[in-house]
Structure prediction request, 440 residues.
Amino acid sequence: MRRFLLALMLVPIHAFPQYNCNIFKMNNDQPCYEACLAATEAEPGQGTRSSQMLFDKAIELCPTFDYPYFEKSVPYLKRGDFVTWKKLIDKAVELNPKGHLGYRGWCKFQFVRDYKGAIRDFEKLDSLLDYDIGYSMNGNYQLNIVKGLCYGAIGQKTKAIEIIEGQLTEKGYSAMTYDYLHLGVLKMQTGDTNGAIDYLKKSISFNDYLAEPYYYLGLIYKKLNRTIDFKENMEKARTYYLKGYKMFDPYTHQVDKVYLTDIEKELKSGE
Amino acid sequence: MKQATLIFILTATLYSCGQTQEKKADYPLQVGDIDFNSKIDNPNFKLCDETRVLQYYNFGKGLQYKGEKITITEYFKNGLKTKEKIGETGVLTIRFIVNCNGQTGRFRIQGMDNDYNEKKFGDNLANQVLTMTSKLDGWIAGELEGKKYDYYQYLAIRFENGKLIEIMP
Prediction:
């Protein structure tokens, strides 16, 4: 059982579907067909010697095939070697911009906090597509929301709000877990207290499994000298946090995430 | 003739084996593996299992530190003695191992500029970051189903003209 669980933990998360190698076969492209088989064989052992060797074999057999560059880059990103990651993912983007610009932008935002670089990727992708630019690798965000967060992080809060609110009104778009929370925080940061309270409450109605909206509501009430509301919300934030109801990502921390220390510091200040 | 053929086959086999091994040697067992270097590494830092060092994200708990990541952020923000210095911009990444007892070792540093090219940060900044990282003592050993494991961890610190901006992951 232990071995099974360990094996499960070590299985890499893949959002990209496996390639259908028969496409190359149908086009009588034997080297690329073999490259595709090698790349799909390499995929489950992400980061291992045999996996990296197979990706290199795939690249050698079919240098115009973006997929092995992309897959080979992933362990470098997750393990903090952003220099090597970037060289490989750039190659994948060069060969297939529509397929990888969104992913590269997301990683620049989530792993490297390269907000301007991420914006460039999302805007480039948008210029290439006449449809939705897609979702983050972890499935938590539509990429326009991420673009908004990037603008927010470089100080353009009003633009960030416009982008996120714009996405929320897009036909066919359903709000995701953190959308209202981020909007609430951005509104708070721009001094729109009522707007912030509305969105944070909306976040709670939408998904009441997060400490964060209670924490930020607490901050707002503190500023408004509404002591009872402040304490009530901060206490709730702490209870939720201790229950494990909080923003979480196994790789990196998220924008607007709070920690137990933040909550306890506020509670102490209100004593 | 038979002998000549046998010699040819043996030579060819040995040659190709050598090639494969040489090629294999270019690849670490795992991307990012850090081998012990007697010139720079503490010989008293021991791993529980040299053959199975996991990655911090394999445990599904994110970064595992007493007081959570905010403790590390505050530690660097309060402890780094840096001055504004034009050009000290980019990301300094320290990669290391947390062993099954929560001790750390085998620190490696990599600097990167805003264009993702390798760069050398000033010795003062790089040494401070390295020393401070090595003094962090709240790491929690990785555990799966009651068994403790060694694992690789990294801290990537973004600087802008010598000022600490953000710490990842």
